[in-house]
Amino acid sequence: MHPKALLDECTALVEAVFRFDHPADAVVARHFRENKSLGPRERATLSDTVYAALRERLKFEWLARSGSGSKWRRLAILGFSGDRDFLKSALSEPEKVWLDACAQVREDEWLAPHRHNLPQWLADALRAQVGEGFDELASSLLQPAPLDLRVNALKAKREAALAALRAAGLKAEPTVHSPWGIRLQGKPSLARLPAFVNGELEVQDEGSQLLALLLDARRGEMVVDFCAGAGGKTLAIGATMRNTGRLYAFDTSAHRLDALKPRLARSGLSNVHPVAIAHERDERIKRLAGKIDRVLVDAPCSGLGTLRRSPDLKWRQTPETVAAQAATQRAILDSAARLLKPGGRLVYATCSLLRDENEAVAEAFSAAHPGFEVEPVAPLLDALRVPDAPSLCGPADEGRFLRLWPHRHGTDGFFAAVWRKKA
Protein backbone atom coordinates (compact mmCIF):
# COMPACT_ATOMS: atom_id res chain seq x y z
CA MET A 1 0.00 0.00 0.00
CA HIS A 2 1.19 3.51 -0.80
CA PRO A 3 2.52 5.35 2.31
CA LYS A 4 -0.11 8.09 2.09
CA ALA A 5 -2.92 5.56 1.77
CA LEU A 6 -1.63 3.57 4.74
CA LEU A 7 -1.34 6.68 6.91
CA ASP A 8 -4.91 7.64 5.93
CA GLU A 9 -6.03 4.15 6.94
CA CYS A 10 -4.24 4.50 10.30
CA THR A 11 -5.87 7.89 10.84
CA ALA A 12 -9.37 6.53 10.21
CA LEU A 13 -8.81 3.58 12.55
CA VAL A 14 -7.37 5.75 15.34
CA GLU A 15 -10.44 8.00 15.12
CA ALA A 16 -12.80 5.00 15.28
CA VAL A 17 -11.04 3.45 18.28
CA PHE A 18 -10.83 6.76 20.18
CA ARG A 19 -14.62 7.04 20.24
CA PHE A 20 -14.39 4.35 22.95
CA ASP A 21 -17.82 2.99 22.01
CA HIS A 22 -16.45 -0.55 21.89
CA PRO A 23 -13.26 -2.38 22.98
CA ALA A 24 -10.30 -1.51 20.78
CA ASP A 25 -9.67 -5.11 19.72
CA ALA A 26 -13.28 -5.40 18.50
CA VAL A 27 -13.02 -2.15 16.49
CA VAL A 28 -9.72 -3.26 14.91
CA ALA A 29 -11.09 -6.73 14.10
CA ARG A 30 -14.20 -5.22 12.47
CA HIS A 31 -12.02 -2.86 10.39
CA PHE A 32 -10.00 -5.81 9.12
CA ARG A 33 -13.16 -7.80 8.27
CA GLU A 34 -14.48 -4.84 6.29
CA ASN A 35 -11.14 -4.32 4.48
CA LYS A 36 -10.11 -7.80 3.40
CA SER A 37 -7.56 -6.45 0.88
CA LEU A 38 -5.22 -5.41 3.71
CA GLY A 39 -2.12 -7.62 3.85
CA PRO A 40 -0.45 -8.99 7.02
CA ARG A 41 2.15 -6.17 7.17
CA GLU A 42 -0.49 -3.48 6.73
CA ARG A 43 -2.67 -5.05 9.42
CA ALA A 44 0.30 -5.20 11.79
CA THR A 45 1.12 -1.52 11.15
CA LEU A 46 -2.50 -0.48 11.68
CA SER A 47 -2.87 -2.46 14.88
CA ASP A 48 0.48 -1.41 16.35
CA THR A 49 -0.16 2.26 15.53
CA VAL A 50 -3.56 2.24 17.24
CA TYR A 51 -2.22 0.53 20.36
CA ALA A 52 0.78 2.88 20.57
CA ALA A 53 -1.60 5.86 20.47
CA LEU A 54 -3.75 4.30 23.21
CA ARG A 55 -0.77 3.52 25.45
CA GLU A 56 0.79 6.99 25.19
CA ARG A 57 -2.35 9.02 24.69
CA LEU A 58 -1.52 11.87 27.10
CA LYS A 59 2.00 12.32 25.73
CA PHE A 60 0.86 12.19 22.12
CA GLU A 61 -2.04 14.59 22.70
CA TRP A 62 0.36 17.07 24.29
CA LEU A 63 2.72 16.81 21.29
CA ALA A 64 -0.19 17.00 18.85
CA ARG A 65 -1.16 20.46 20.08
CA SER A 66 1.74 21.99 18.16
CA GLY A 67 0.99 20.21 14.89
CA SER A 68 -1.48 20.91 12.09
CA GLY A 69 -4.18 18.89 10.39
CA SER A 70 -6.68 16.63 12.14
CA LYS A 71 -5.95 15.46 15.68
CA TRP A 72 -6.38 11.82 14.59
CA ARG A 73 -3.80 12.17 11.82
CA ARG A 74 -1.32 13.68 14.28
CA LEU A 75 -1.88 10.82 16.75
CA ALA A 76 -1.47 8.29 13.93
CA ILE A 77 1.81 9.92 12.86
CA LEU A 78 3.16 9.86 16.42
CA GLY A 79 2.15 6.26 16.95
CA PHE A 80 3.09 4.99 13.48
CA SER A 81 4.88 1.70 13.88
CA GLY A 82 6.46 1.36 10.45
CA ASP A 83 9.75 2.58 9.02
CA ARG A 84 10.37 6.29 9.71
CA ASP A 85 11.50 7.06 6.14
CA PHE A 86 8.39 5.27 4.85
CA LEU A 87 6.27 7.44 7.14
CA LYS A 88 8.03 10.68 6.14
CA SER A 89 7.31 10.00 2.47
CA ALA A 90 3.60 10.37 3.36
CA LEU A 91 4.04 13.70 5.19
CA SER A 92 3.93 17.32 4.09
CA GLU A 93 6.98 19.47 4.76
CA PRO A 94 5.39 21.17 7.81
CA GLU A 95 4.50 17.74 9.21
CA LYS A 96 8.09 16.56 8.78
CA VAL A 97 9.39 19.61 10.63
CA TRP A 98 6.83 19.08 13.42
CA LEU A 99 7.67 15.37 13.76
CA ASP A 100 11.40 16.13 14.01
CA ALA A 101 10.67 18.73 16.68
CA CYS A 102 8.64 16.16 18.64
CA ALA A 103 11.61 13.80 18.60
CA GLN A 104 13.78 16.50 20.20
CA VAL A 105 11.69 16.86 23.36
CA ARG A 106 13.86 15.85 26.31
CA GLU A 107 12.78 13.39 28.99
CA ASP A 108 13.03 16.03 31.72
CA GLU A 109 10.52 18.21 29.84
CA TRP A 110 7.67 15.73 30.32
CA LEU A 111 5.18 16.25 33.11
CA ALA A 112 4.26 13.22 35.24
CA PRO A 113 1.01 12.47 33.28
CA HIS A 114 2.98 12.41 30.01
CA ARG A 115 5.34 9.83 31.48
CA HIS A 116 2.77 7.52 33.06
CA ASN A 117 -0.08 8.03 30.55
CA LEU A 118 -2.77 7.07 33.05
CA PRO A 119 -5.97 8.89 34.02
CA GLN A 120 -5.29 10.71 37.28
CA TRP A 121 -7.73 8.67 39.39
CA LEU A 122 -5.98 5.46 38.34
CA ALA A 123 -2.48 6.88 38.80
CA ASP A 124 -3.42 7.95 42.35
CA ALA A 125 -4.88 4.51 43.18
CA LEU A 126 -1.82 2.63 41.91
CA ARG A 127 0.68 5.00 43.57
CA ALA A 128 -1.11 4.47 46.90
CA GLN A 129 -0.48 0.72 46.56
CA VAL A 130 3.06 0.47 45.20
CA GLY A 131 4.61 3.69 46.49
CA GLU A 132 8.12 4.17 45.13
CA GLY A 133 7.52 1.40 42.60
CA PHE A 134 4.88 3.46 40.78
CA ASP A 135 7.16 4.78 38.01
CA GLU A 136 8.42 1.28 37.27
CA LEU A 137 4.85 -0.06 37.21
CA ALA A 138 3.65 2.74 34.94
CA SER A 139 6.55 2.16 32.57
CA SER A 140 5.81 -1.58 32.42
CA LEU A 141 2.18 -0.89 31.50
CA LEU A 142 3.36 1.04 28.42
CA GLN A 143 5.14 -2.03 27.04
CA PRO A 144 3.41 -4.66 24.88
CA ALA A 145 2.84 -7.94 26.72
CA PRO A 146 4.85 -11.04 25.77
CA LEU A 147 3.18 -14.10 24.23
CA ASP A 148 2.83 -16.91 26.78
CA LEU A 149 1.78 -20.48 26.06
CA ARG A 150 0.57 -23.26 28.36
CA VAL A 151 1.63 -26.81 27.66
CA ASN A 152 -1.33 -29.21 27.78
CA ALA A 153 -0.05 -31.76 30.32
CA LEU A 154 -2.37 -34.41 28.85
CA LYS A 155 -0.53 -34.33 25.55
CA ALA A 156 3.01 -33.07 26.05
CA LYS A 157 5.79 -32.23 28.46
CA ARG A 158 7.26 -28.73 28.61
CA GLU A 159 10.78 -29.83 27.64
CA ALA A 160 9.51 -31.53 24.47
CA ALA A 161 7.30 -28.56 23.58
CA LEU A 162 10.23 -26.17 24.01
CA ALA A 163 12.37 -28.31 21.73
CA ALA A 164 9.65 -28.39 19.06
CA LEU A 165 9.18 -24.62 19.15
CA ARG A 166 12.91 -23.99 18.91
CA ALA A 167 13.17 -26.46 16.03
CA ALA A 168 10.49 -24.40 14.26
CA GLY A 169 12.78 -21.37 14.56
CA LEU A 170 10.96 -19.68 17.46
CA LYS A 171 12.70 -18.14 20.45
CA ALA A 172 11.10 -19.85 23.44
CA GLU A 173 11.95 -20.00 27.14
CA PRO A 174 10.26 -21.67 30.14
CA THR A 175 8.26 -19.29 32.34
CA VAL A 176 9.63 -18.51 35.79
CA HIS A 177 6.56 -19.24 37.91
CA SER A 178 4.26 -21.63 36.06
CA PRO A 179 5.48 -25.21 35.55
CA TRP A 180 3.42 -25.42 32.34
CA GLY A 181 4.38 -22.08 30.79
CA ILE A 182 6.48 -21.10 27.77
CA ARG A 183 7.26 -17.50 26.80
CA LEU A 184 7.83 -16.65 23.14
CA GLN A 185 9.77 -13.71 21.77
CA GLY A 186 7.94 -11.52 19.27
CA LYS A 187 4.49 -12.21 17.84
CA PRO A 188 4.82 -15.38 15.76
CA SER A 189 1.78 -16.86 14.03
CA LEU A 190 0.73 -20.08 15.75
CA ALA A 191 -2.30 -21.05 13.67
CA ARG A 192 -0.43 -23.63 11.56
CA LEU A 193 2.05 -24.77 14.19
CA PRO A 194 1.53 -28.56 14.62
CA ALA A 195 1.78 -28.41 18.43
CA PHE A 196 -0.91 -25.71 18.51
CA VAL A 197 -3.19 -27.41 15.97
CA ASN A 198 -3.13 -30.73 17.84
CA GLY A 199 -3.82 -29.17 21.23
CA GLU A 200 -0.41 -29.54 22.87
CA LEU A 201 -0.20 -25.76 23.35
CA GLU A 202 -2.68 -23.02 24.26
CA VAL A 203 -2.17 -19.26 24.46
CA GLN A 204 -2.46 -18.24 28.13
CA ASP A 205 -0.67 -15.62 30.23
CA GLU A 206 1.58 -17.08 32.91
CA GLY A 207 -0.42 -15.31 35.62
CA SER A 208 -3.63 -16.89 34.41
CA GLN A 209 -1.99 -20.32 34.52
CA LEU A 210 -1.18 -19.81 38.19
CA LEU A 211 -4.89 -19.49 39.01
CA ALA A 212 -5.48 -23.04 37.78
CA LEU A 213 -2.43 -24.15 39.75
CA LEU A 214 -3.85 -22.52 42.88
CA LEU A 215 -7.22 -24.26 42.49
CA ASP A 216 -5.26 -27.56 42.43
CA ALA A 217 -8.19 -29.64 41.14
CA ARG A 218 -7.63 -33.39 41.56
CA ARG A 219 -8.60 -36.56 39.75
CA GLY A 220 -12.25 -37.55 40.06
CA GLU A 221 -13.43 -34.32 41.72
CA MET A 222 -16.49 -32.18 40.99
CA VAL A 223 -15.19 -28.73 39.99
CA VAL A 224 -16.75 -25.49 38.74
CA ASP A 225 -15.15 -22.69 36.73
CA PHE A 226 -17.82 -20.14 37.63
CA CYS A 227 -16.99 -17.41 35.08
CA ALA A 228 -15.40 -19.50 32.36
CA GLY A 229 -15.46 -17.04 29.46
CA ALA A 230 -13.62 -18.50 26.47
CA GLY A 231 -12.23 -21.22 28.71
CA GLY A 232 -8.47 -20.73 29.00
CA LYS A 233 -8.45 -21.58 32.69
CA THR A 234 -11.10 -24.28 32.19
CA LEU A 235 -8.74 -26.15 29.89
CA ALA A 236 -5.87 -25.81 32.35
CA ILE A 237 -8.06 -27.10 35.20
CA GLY A 238 -9.27 -30.05 33.14
CA ALA A 239 -5.68 -31.06 32.46
CA THR A 240 -4.81 -30.96 36.18
CA MET A 241 -7.79 -33.31 36.74
CA ARG A 242 -6.22 -35.68 34.17
CA ASN A 243 -9.49 -35.67 32.22
CA THR A 244 -11.39 -37.36 35.06
CA GLY A 245 -14.24 -36.21 37.31
CA ARG A 246 -16.63 -33.50 36.16
CA LEU A 247 -15.73 -29.91 35.36
CA TYR A 248 -18.55 -27.41 34.83
CA ALA A 249 -17.77 -24.28 32.81
CA PHE A 250 -20.41 -21.67 33.73
CA ASP A 251 -20.82 -18.34 31.98
CA THR A 252 -23.65 -15.89 31.33
CA SER A 253 -22.54 -15.56 27.69
CA ALA A 254 -23.34 -18.49 25.43
CA HIS A 255 -21.29 -16.70 22.75
CA ARG A 256 -18.16 -16.83 24.92
CA LEU A 257 -18.75 -20.50 25.70
CA ASP A 258 -19.07 -21.21 21.97
CA ALA A 259 -15.50 -19.95 21.61
CA LEU A 260 -14.45 -22.70 24.03
CA LYS A 261 -15.71 -25.54 21.81
CA PRO A 262 -12.90 -25.63 19.20
CA ARG A 263 -10.29 -25.27 21.94
CA LEU A 264 -11.96 -28.07 23.88
CA ALA A 265 -11.88 -30.31 20.80
CA ARG A 266 -8.13 -29.69 20.37
CA SER A 267 -7.38 -30.29 24.04
CA GLY A 268 -8.59 -33.90 24.18
CA LEU A 269 -10.64 -33.17 27.32
CA SER A 270 -13.95 -35.00 27.74
CA ASN A 271 -14.68 -34.08 31.37
CA VAL A 272 -15.68 -30.44 30.63
CA HIS A 273 -19.37 -29.49 30.58
CA PRO A 274 -20.08 -25.92 29.34
CA VAL A 275 -23.28 -24.47 30.84
CA ALA A 276 -24.75 -21.08 29.87
CA ILE A 277 -26.46 -19.54 32.90
CA ALA A 278 -28.84 -16.56 33.10
CA HIS A 279 -27.28 -15.03 36.23
CA GLU A 280 -25.42 -16.00 39.40
CA ARG A 281 -28.64 -17.34 41.01
CA ASP A 282 -29.60 -19.60 38.09
CA GLU A 283 -31.52 -22.80 38.99
CA ARG A 284 -28.78 -24.91 37.41
CA ILE A 285 -26.40 -23.57 40.05
CA LYS A 286 -28.80 -24.30 42.91
CA ARG A 287 -28.99 -27.97 41.91
CA LEU A 288 -25.28 -28.34 42.57
CA ALA A 289 -25.29 -26.59 45.97
CA GLY A 290 -23.14 -28.41 48.52
CA LYS A 291 -21.84 -30.95 45.98
CA ILE A 292 -18.70 -29.31 44.55
CA ASP A 293 -15.11 -29.91 45.66
CA ARG A 294 -13.51 -26.79 44.16
CA VAL A 295 -14.79 -23.55 42.64
CA LEU A 296 -12.84 -20.91 40.72
CA VAL A 297 -14.45 -17.47 40.46
CA ASP A 298 -12.37 -15.52 37.95
CA ALA A 299 -14.76 -12.62 38.28
CA PRO A 300 -15.70 -10.01 35.67
CA CYS A 301 -13.59 -6.98 36.50
CA SER A 302 -12.15 -3.73 35.17
CA GLY A 303 -9.36 -5.69 33.43
CA LEU A 304 -6.83 -3.05 34.48
CA GLY A 305 -4.20 -5.73 35.05
CA THR A 306 -4.16 -6.31 31.28
CA LEU A 307 -3.28 -2.76 30.19
CA ARG A 308 -0.24 -4.01 28.29
CA ARG A 309 -2.66 -5.91 26.01
CA SER A 310 -5.75 -3.67 26.25
CA PRO A 311 -4.57 -0.09 26.84
CA ASP A 312 -8.00 1.29 25.90
CA LEU A 313 -9.33 0.01 29.24
CA LYS A 314 -7.62 2.79 31.18
CA TRP A 315 -9.61 5.33 29.15
CA ARG A 316 -12.88 3.36 29.22
CA GLN A 317 -13.00 2.55 32.95
CA THR A 318 -13.90 5.07 35.68
CA PRO A 319 -14.19 4.97 39.49
CA GLU A 320 -17.94 4.50 38.95
CA THR A 321 -17.54 1.46 36.67
CA VAL A 322 -15.06 -0.05 39.14
CA ALA A 323 -17.51 0.40 42.02
CA ALA A 324 -20.25 -1.27 39.98
CA GLN A 325 -17.90 -4.17 39.15
CA ALA A 326 -17.06 -4.64 42.83
CA ALA A 327 -20.76 -4.97 43.71
CA THR A 328 -21.17 -7.60 40.99
CA GLN A 329 -18.07 -9.43 42.19
CA ARG A 330 -19.42 -9.68 45.74
CA ALA A 331 -22.74 -11.06 44.47
CA ILE A 332 -21.06 -13.65 42.25
CA LEU A 333 -18.71 -14.77 45.03
CA ASP A 334 -21.63 -15.15 47.48
CA SER A 335 -23.51 -17.33 44.99
CA ALA A 336 -20.51 -19.45 44.03
CA ALA A 337 -19.74 -20.20 47.68
CA ARG A 338 -23.04 -22.09 48.01
CA LEU A 339 -21.76 -24.77 45.64
CA LEU A 340 -19.02 -26.05 47.93
CA LYS A 341 -19.18 -29.13 50.10
CA PRO A 342 -17.50 -29.06 53.55
CA GLY A 343 -13.73 -29.02 53.10
CA GLY A 344 -14.07 -27.61 49.58
CA ARG A 345 -11.79 -24.90 48.16
CA LEU A 346 -12.97 -21.54 46.83
CA VAL A 347 -10.64 -19.36 44.75
CA TYR A 348 -11.58 -15.76 43.93
CA ALA A 349 -9.51 -14.03 41.25
CA THR A 350 -9.43 -10.92 39.07
CA CYS A 351 -7.13 -9.44 36.45
CA SER A 352 -7.40 -6.06 38.17
CA LEU A 353 -4.72 -4.00 39.91
CA LEU A 354 -7.19 -2.22 42.19
CA ARG A 355 -7.71 -2.95 45.87
CA ASP A 356 -11.44 -2.19 45.54
CA GLU A 357 -11.88 -5.24 43.32
CA ASN A 358 -9.36 -7.42 45.14
CA GLU A 359 -8.56 -7.29 48.86
CA ALA A 360 -11.72 -5.29 49.64
CA VAL A 361 -13.97 -7.92 48.03
CA ALA A 362 -12.08 -10.78 49.69
CA GLU A 363 -12.23 -9.14 53.12
CA ALA A 364 -15.97 -8.42 52.76
CA PHE A 365 -16.59 -12.07 51.86
CA SER A 366 -14.63 -13.31 54.87
CA ALA A 367 -16.55 -10.99 57.19
CA ALA A 368 -19.91 -12.17 55.81
CA HIS A 369 -19.07 -15.90 55.69
CA PRO A 370 -17.63 -17.19 58.98
CA GLY A 371 -18.09 -20.73 57.64
CA PHE A 372 -15.16 -20.14 55.28
CA GLU A 373 -11.57 -20.01 56.46
CA VAL A 374 -8.87 -18.11 54.55
CA GLU A 375 -6.08 -20.33 53.25
CA PRO A 376 -2.87 -18.30 52.86
CA VAL A 377 -1.72 -18.46 49.26
CA ALA A 378 2.04 -18.47 49.88
CA PRO A 379 2.38 -22.05 51.25
CA LEU A 380 -0.07 -23.37 48.64
CA LEU A 381 1.99 -21.95 45.80
CA ASP A 382 5.30 -22.98 47.33
CA ALA A 383 4.09 -26.59 47.28
CA LEU A 384 2.82 -26.48 43.69
CA ARG A 385 4.84 -24.17 41.45
CA VAL A 386 8.32 -24.21 39.97
CA PRO A 387 10.98 -24.89 42.62
CA ASP A 388 13.04 -21.86 43.68
CA ALA A 389 10.86 -19.38 41.76
CA PRO A 390 10.70 -15.87 43.32
CA SER A 391 7.92 -15.17 45.80
CA LEU A 392 4.52 -14.16 44.46
CA CYS A 393 3.17 -12.74 47.72
CA GLY A 394 4.23 -9.52 49.36
CA PRO A 395 5.11 -9.45 53.07
CA ALA A 396 2.41 -6.87 53.82
CA ASP A 397 -0.45 -9.39 53.94
CA GLU A 398 1.65 -12.28 55.36
CA GLY A 399 1.19 -14.33 52.20
CA ARG A 400 -2.60 -14.40 52.39
CA PHE A 401 -3.23 -13.34 48.80
CA LEU A 402 -1.65 -13.81 45.39
CA ARG A 403 -0.62 -10.46 43.93
CA LEU A 404 0.99 -10.39 40.49
CA TRP A 405 2.34 -7.13 39.05
CA PRO A 406 3.67 -6.61 35.50
CA HIS A 407 6.77 -4.75 36.73
CA ARG A 408 7.62 -7.33 39.40
CA HIS A 409 6.59 -10.64 37.90
CA GLY A 410 6.46 -10.05 34.14
CA THR A 411 2.84 -11.23 34.00
CA ASP A 412 -0.47 -9.49 33.65
CA GLY A 413 -1.76 -8.04 36.92
CA PHE A 414 -3.65 -10.69 38.90
CA PHE A 415 -5.12 -11.14 42.35
CA ALA A 416 -6.32 -14.32 44.05
CA ALA A 417 -7.69 -15.28 47.44
CA VAL A 418 -8.41 -18.81 48.68
CA TRP A 419 -10.86 -20.14 51.27
CA ARG A 420 -11.71 -23.59 52.65
CA LYS A 421 -15.29 -24.33 53.66
CA LYS A 422 -15.25 -25.48 57.27
CA ALA A 423 -16.74 -28.87 58.16
Characterization of this structure:
By secondary structure, the protein is α/β, with parallel strands linked by helices. The protein contains 21 helices and 12 strands. The longest helix is centred in the last third of the chain and has 19 residues. It is globular. The termini are far apart.
Structural class by sheet pairing and helices: alpha/beta
Strand content: 5-15%
- Spans of at least 5 consecutive residues whose pLDDT stays below 50 are none
Strand elements, count: 12
End-to-end distance: 67 Å
What characterizes the major β-sheet? 8 strands, mixed
Helical run tally: 21
Helical residues, percent? 40-55%
Radius of gyration over all CA atoms, rounded? 23 Å
**Principal-axis shape:** globular
The pLDDT mean sits at 94
